[in-house]
Specification:
120 residues, 7 helices
């Protein structure tokens, strides 16, 4: 029964992503961002951990789990270390490389201006 629930919940998350692409006319980047932020919000509300307990890998394998991991790490470290935990929490739970890529990518997006690409 565990495998069935993992398959159904993981499949439902993937169906939501596919619907965002097909019906919502989102780009893949927008869809991925929406799913990561959704996982982060669900963890912030305390709803993603029960989903992981229920569905196992069906909730931990999709991209929504990445948002969950980031927020979960930040909240855990913030409780233990205060405000400094907000900055270090995502580095404790997720890999430092991925978290650094997100942080520096965001800083780069804020600092630098986007230029159109011309294919001649």
């Amino acid at each position: 029964m565990t495998f069935l629930w993992a398959f159904l919940i993981g499949g439902a998350i993937c169906v939501i992503g596919q619907l965002l692409l097909d019906v919502g006319k989102m780009t893949p980047a927008h869809m991925l961002t929406t799913l990561v932020v959704s996982g982060a919000i669900l963890d912030g509300l305390g709803l993603y951990e029960p989903l992981i307990d229920f569905a196992g890998a069906g909730a931990t394998v999709p991209i929504t789990s990445f948002g969950n991991a980031l927020v979960h790490g930040v909240l855990t470290e913030a409780k233990e270390n205060g405000y400094i935990g907000v900055l270090t929490g995502m580095f404790q739970v997720t890999s430092a490389g991925i978290s650094s890529a997100i942080l520096f990518g965001m800083i780069g997006a804020i600092i630098f201006k986007n230029r159109p690409v011309h294919y001649d």
